[in-house]
Protein: Murein L,D-transpeptidase YcbB/YkuD
Amino acid sequence: MLAVAAAAAPTLAAAPRTAKAKAVSGKAVKPKTAKAGVKKSVPAKAARSAADIARDRAVAAAIRAAAGGWMARVYAQRNYAPLWASGGRIGPAAETLIGYLGNADLDNLKRSSYDVGKLRERIDAARGGDPARVAAAELALSATFVDYVRDQRKPRDVGMKWADPALKPKRPKPEAVLRAATFPKSFPTYVKDMGWMSPRYVELRQVSAQARTIGITPAALTRLRRNLDRARLLPGPWTRHVEVDASSGRLWFYEAGAAKGTMRVVVGTRETQTPMLAGTLQWAILNPYWNVPDYLVRKNIATKVLAGRTLASLHMEALSDWTAGARPIPASAIDWPAVAAGKRELRLRELPGPANSMGKVKFLFPNDEGIYLHDTPNRALLKKDDRHFSNGCIRLEDAPRLARWLMGKPLNPGKKPEQAVPLTAPTPVYLTYLTATGGGAGGLSFRDDVYGRDG
Structure:
């Protein structure tokens, strides 16, 4: 989902009426300590700044005269200040864009879709500094940039499930693309970092470029493109969100154009896979119970009870049903052989405490898969290189740190069980699966395809 700026973009403000501003405008300033009749010369740097300001204003006036439709609306919001030009000259972001267009095949796009030759002619014509020609190059660059970004972000069907339908991506509208680009403080950096795409996508694109310089097999290319299409669905870092990669067993969270944290996670096994799923985190449950899945009740808990363990020793209790008003029932009233044989269903839950499988907190987002993120007391699994051990949910290496970011305050669960705390800002979470990575022969390697999704 492309981030769209919520605040007005910066404008070219008039210089304040101060002595310093008068110096910038080229007017002589009489220092308070200077003798009458003695003028202080304007510093060369200030004179250049004044000239740059004048050229930018001339370009802005030319953009105002030439822009139309949705593009005029975007530029009007920033007082027609140019994005691609500074001091009346087209800046380095233009060459960065042309470089992207020249190797658009890395995005599985056609280079012929973008008239790079004509765009280059506009840029060359603007080198003389004529405001009208600079404005023409500016608008041509913005139009081509919008086309490229929209093509990059056009979603592919990769098997992602959308628990929150609002997150299901569509090809972004042109106005939204350009407006989002005006939000970051540095537009050249935004273009250089490809800030409209997930850092995962940018990394894989770079890996693809390195691999192709040496040579890549058709099978590896097909597999790499599948990974790129999965990463294509992830938001850029300007969208506040959480990202979980079930291949590497790692989580990131992003806000305001940067990663605010990363950590290891334990994810599902080959048999109990963590799905590719996108939803919106809405609640934190402090000191949670753990409702034991039916198959674990049958295969694990019932077997232990029949072997002599008690529910109390397992820190568990049985409940009469799955409703909110369920009542505890004594273990002696349960037909454990029937439970072990799968002839009777039984609701069991693990009580809050140091040994609880959910730890101190779990984070919920509505979904039909029963997936959530949670703390864990089992720290040993997080130290392993391969972290595919869970029943599908995501166990967090540093739940308090994620809680602090999601909730805006330190985690303080107290002792009360099952406390539901709404998140101040509901936050999208994307569970993906990216096996391609750097390193290896030709700069490309693949992690084991544990879930068998690479084909």
User: Anything to note?
Assistant: The chain has a mean pLDDT of 89. Residues 51-195 form one domain. The longest strand covers residues 419-432.
